[in-house]
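Q: What structure does this chain adopt?
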Amino acid sequence: MSYRGRLAPTPTGHLHLGHARTFWIAQERAKVANGSLVLRIEDLDQARCKTQFCQDIYEDLRWFGFDWQEGPDLEPAGAFGPYEQIQRLESYRSVWAELATRLVIYPSPHSRKDVAAAIAAPHEGDREIIFPPHLRPMDWDVTEMPGEINWRFRVPDGEVIEFVDNNVGLCSYTAGEDFGDFLVWRRDDFPSYELAVVADDHAMAISEVVRGEDLLLSTAKQILLYRALDWSVPTFYHCPLVRDARGKRLAKRDQAVALRTLREQGLTPVAIRQSWD
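A:
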């Protein structure tokens, strides 16, 4: 299969140096492999995603030197669209239905404050809350539909999930210890981050996922979803995080490191990329 990579920004703020470096690595790996690069907008968090941020993403990426072959701003957009998650809700429902049929997910009224966070990718420092196994239901109505209640994936307690990351190397996590039953569908009738990205990467035939190393634990969860659905698992390349002078991970709220701020200050994309060497 030919190489297919992706850029997957979330329009909840402006892109910063950390995004640029990770995305640049993704683009370079696609070029070396003579492959394709897909731009996907991960805009399921409707409370925080803004149309203006989305337009700014296109502008900032183009200014920095990015070039993608498929994406929502192109005409034609590509054969694997739509490339905006908010337009892919029916496909997520189909994936939920398949998981429900295979009895690997269950309805769960216990949110433990992670419902609101489930739609977003986890960040460095987020503490993994291990869902108590005794709260798993003994049985449930198999005809029940998503919406108004959370749904969780039942992890195989004690199973070691291993994968070889193309940058980090061998990674190993134990289900039930490093992570527990995780959300796949929210009570507000939206898919979780884990389900959405797995569904999208499979549907868009992504062969390698390039992203920040703060998502290594998420990869173990997503591998379980791929296996449950009998889908091929892509390879992964997790990049080191870009940090500020205090060693803190960059955040969108820090406008000092936003690409458009650096652009306004007269910095060029070439100068920024040279600073990474």
